[in-house]
């Protein structure tokens, strides 16, 4: 009996040891988490450069949660939640069927500033609960697929300065959690979809330096949380919609270098939070609306090289500002060089 109980005792010890081992090593990411990452690594064959070196320690049978650029959940479940590979000189092509887009817990995919990184987004089968998607300053190309609208948890979408082309899909309006949307920098064209007005959580919208054209949709006035709106350096034309006056949270409004025409709408005077209004190099005509004097938070008004006539309304705090000067009036810095007065 002696040896038998000793044996059982040792068995129990062994089991306890094994239990302890499995608990303390529960952080080890499982194969289903590691294998999409290893497949991702294989897309980069250019060993001469940094891209391969960046992932040098991404090796099978090591904990992927400890790999360079990889983050996992705080609960120790070994779920890959983030890929932070910005500025990694990644040189290769991510196909739209890359298993990366199927990682079931991925919340952050930041591939920005990898200028030689080509790729496209999946048409479907995009099963990450992504919150942050940043491929700015990469060579991602093709269309932004309708499937982007499936990423319901997305708060930040930055696809600026890429080689994407074509229209923004209507499905962009499904991204109800989005707070930051940057589609600037010559990637997209066509009209902004009306559905953009569904993005009620947006605080930052940047559509500048783009080939977008036509009217700004009236629905833009639904974006009541917007603080920054940049439509500058674009081919937007027609009148600025009156609904712009609904953007009560707006602090920065960049309208410079656009093809808008007609008068600035009176409703602009409703933007009580506005501190910066840039209207230079525009084709707006007529007089500046008197309502501009209601913008009590305004610190900078840039009217250089515009086509307004008359003078800056007295309501803004000065009887007459010569169009050819830079004026500081009641704390408002007004740049008004070379208007057609
Ligand atoms: C990217 O990789 C290709 C071949 O894999 C190589 O020819 C090219 O020079 C690389 N580009 C840079 C900028 O390293
Ligand atoms: C590595 O990449 C950098 C930046 O893209 C590039 O300037 C350099 O020529 C590349 N070196 C080699 C050996 O490919
Ligand atoms: C992706 O599609 C290509 C063909 O278009 C195929 O060769 C490749 O195996 C696919 N990759 C995955 C991970 O399904
Ligand atoms: C992506 O990473 C870069 C570099 O760390 C960072 O500056 C940028 O803010 C990140 N993007 C987002 C959307 O968080
Ligand atoms: C989506 O995934 C399913 C199953 O893996 C596959 O049969 C289908 O072809 C995929 N669709 C696309 C558009 O990649």
Automatic annotation (TrEMBL):
Residues 31-73 form the Leucine-rich repeat-containing N-terminal plant-type domain. Pfam families: LRR_1, LRR_14, LRRNT_2. Keywords: Glycoprotein, Leucine-rich repeat, Membrane, Repeat, Signal, Transmembrane, Transmembrane helix. It comes from the Eukaryota. InterPro entries: Leu-rich_rpt, LRR_dom_sf, LRR_N_plant-typ, LRR_R13L4/SHOC2-like, LRRC69/RLP. Residues 1-26 form the signal peptide. Transmembrane segments: none annotated. This is Uncharacterized protein.
């Amino acid at each position: 009996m002696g040896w038998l109980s000793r044996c059982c005792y040792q068995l129990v010890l062994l089991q306890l040891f094994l239990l302890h081992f499995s608990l303390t090593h529960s952080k080890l990411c499982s194969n289903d988490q590691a294998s999409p990452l290893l497949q991702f690594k294989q897309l980069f064959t250019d060993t001469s450069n940094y891209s391969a070196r960046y992932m040098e320690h991404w090796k099978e049978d090591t904990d992927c949660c400890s790999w360079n650029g990889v983050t996992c959940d705080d609960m120790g479940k070994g779920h890959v939640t983030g890929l932070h590979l910005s500025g990694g000189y990644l040189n290769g092509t991510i196909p739209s069927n890359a298993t990366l887009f199927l990682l079931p817990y991925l919340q952050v995919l930041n591939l920005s500033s990898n200028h030689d990184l080509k790729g496209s987004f999946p048409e479907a089968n995009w099963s990450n609960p992504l919150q942050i998607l940043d491929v700015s300053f990469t060579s991602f190309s093709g269309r932004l697929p309708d499937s982007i609208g499936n990423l319901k948890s997305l708060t930040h979408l930055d696809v600026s300065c890429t080689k994407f082309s074509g229209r923004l899909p209507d499905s962009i309006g499904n991204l109800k959690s989005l707070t930051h949307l940057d589609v600037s920098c010559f990637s997209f064209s066509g009209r902004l979809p009306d559905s953009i007005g569904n993005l009620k959580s947006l605080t930052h919208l940047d559509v500048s330096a783009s080939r977008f054209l036509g009217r700004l949709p009236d629905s833009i006035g639904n974006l009541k949380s917007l603080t920054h709106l940049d439509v500058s350096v674009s081919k937007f034309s027609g009148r600025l919609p009156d609904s712009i006056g609904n953007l009560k949270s707006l602090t920065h409004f960049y309208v410079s270098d656009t093809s808008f025409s007609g008068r600035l709408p009176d409703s602009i005077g409703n933007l009580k939070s506005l501190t910066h209004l840039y209207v230079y190099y525009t084709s707006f005509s007529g007089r500046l609306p008197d309502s501009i004097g209601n913008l009590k938070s305004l610190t900078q008004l840039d009217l250089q090289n515009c086509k307004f006539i008359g003078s800056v309304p007295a309501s803004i705090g000065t009887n007459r500002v010569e169009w050819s000067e830079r004026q500081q009036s009641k704390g408002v810095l007004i740049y008004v060089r070379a208007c057609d007065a």
